[in-house]
Amino acid sequence: MIRRQQINDLLKSTAFNTEVKVMGWVKTFRNNQFIALNDGSCMANIQVVVDFNNTPENLLKRITTGAAITVEGILVESLGKGQTVEIKASKVEILGDSDAEKYPLQPKKHSLEFLREIAHLRFRTNTFNAVFKVRHALAFAIHQFYNERGFVYMHTPVITASDAEGAGEMFRVTTLDFDHTPRTEDGKVDFSADFFGRSTNLTVSGQLEGELAATAFGKIYTFGPTFRAENSNTTRHLAEFWMIEPEVAFADLENNMELAEDMMKYVISYAKDHCAEELAFLNNRLLEEEKQKPQNERSELSLLEKLDFCLNNDFQRLTYTEAIDILKASKPNQKKQFKYLIEGWGADLQSEHERYLVEKHFKKPVILTDYPKDIKSFYMRLNDDGKTVAAMDILFPGIGEMIGGSQREERLDVLTKRMEEMGVPQDELWWYLDTRRFGTVPHAGFGLGFERLVLFVTGMTNIRDVIAFPRFPKSAEF
Ligand code: 4AD
Ligand code: MG
């Protein structure tokens, strides 16, 4: 018996006239003779040539788009255009039939919207093969980046009893019976009867637990799913997304910015080195897509040029206050083209403002720092001016906010005062405050939205197309 080989290996092979065996799914079957076969190991198909004179009619009929088959035959040099090798089949076996009439993924161009409705099958397309190979490479690169630098990978809990961002955007986790909810004397739901004996939710961020670990290991990172019950139906938001959160002891905002910029460049460069074929495909896909747009809406750079641009330029650093001055004086603000006009200092930046700074003004990734304390989270370190915090947001072209982070407030008295002001319950976070009671140190960290990174590197335009089974308002199919 010969062993099955992967198509990506065979396509590179020069072992002509040897016996080979492959398994895969039929993409197309032309003239009762040529099968384009794909096994997922690469985007390219291998051509299988069937001797139809010596193949039973009922078997030929079952070689349909989507069917799974085993092929044994001889690897030969191909005379056809666009391929160097093909398989002269001596034996074709059907592993799984696919009714050609009913198979939703017909061999033609489908819209991304349609493919989202058949997300269980869309991995079989070239686009999604490429996107998810790049996603894999980026995940791997992130682990490699932190591992090389001596960070410890922490698995922080998915179920928590706290709100790490203090923004109240949480999904509740409960086993209470909705039809007979236990009530306390004053009529409120009695969570002491719930599974954990208290109210719990899906985590919005692993940061707080990450800080506990960082103040023991020195530097750690998390990489896991996080959940936000925000009702945002945009191309940049998911209700379930993956976040990478490094946390470093003895580090300040400057160190934090350096780490973030190094990481971004490292993982983008890794993807370029390891996914050249996929990125070339996605580059062309985007060029084609851009052709549909009017000239003035097309981007100046191709996908690959954008990646290089990001690798070859320092991220622009500026403070929130400087950004407000730029935005106030900007054309879209003067001409009242922004939906939210910038009137003055203190305004929260909307994605239209972030994108103006990155895409129109600086035309490169931007690190904005030192935001007003009132629009940021309770744990960010208060600056000496008493008005701003040592926060940083990293903004990317086409994406907006890619990373959010800060130096943390390590002074117990300042932190508890901030929590009071912002209505963050201290009794629930007694364990967090303990890090400030026992050997507190300056420390800093940030969160990278993994899907936003994948969006940027693949040039896809909707975040729902870079996670396998997207979760968003009114949608939890598959
Ligand atoms: O800015 P955020 O909310 O920051 C935190 O959660 C901090 N605890 C991070 C830290 O300092 N350790 O989220 C961080 C990043 C954002 O910059 C964005 O890229 C991504 O997570 N993100 C989302 N991605 C997809 N869908 C959503 N609904 C997202 N919300 C945030
Ligand atoms: Mg943020």
TrEMBL record:
Its recorded reaction(s) are: tRNA(Asn) + L-asparagine + ATP = L-asparaginyl-tRNA(Asn) + AMP + diphosphate + H(+)
- Which segments cross the bilayer? none
Give the EC number: 6.1.1.22
One of the entry's Gene Ontology molecular-function terms is: asparagine-tRNA ligase activity
**SUPFAM superfamilies per the record?**
Class II aaRS and biotin synthetases, Nucleic acid-binding proteins
Q: Cite the entry's keywords alphabetically.
A: Aminoacyl-tRNA synthetase, ATP-binding, Cytoplasm, Ligase, Nucleotide-binding, Protein biosynthesis
Enzyme class name: ligase
What region holds the Aminoacyl-transfer RNA synthetases class-II family profile domain?
Answer: 132-470
Matches recorded under InterPro entries: Aa-tRNA-synt_II, aa-tRNA-synth_II, aa-tRNA-synth_II/BPL/LPL, Asn-tRNA-ligase, Asp/Asn-tRNA-synth_IIb, NA-bd_OB-fold, NA-bd_OB_tRNA
Q: Where in the cell is it found?
A: Cytoplasm
Family from the record: Belongs to the class-II aminoacyl-tRNA synthetase family.
Q: Assembly and partners?
A: Homodimer.
The entry's protein name is Asparagine--tRNA ligase
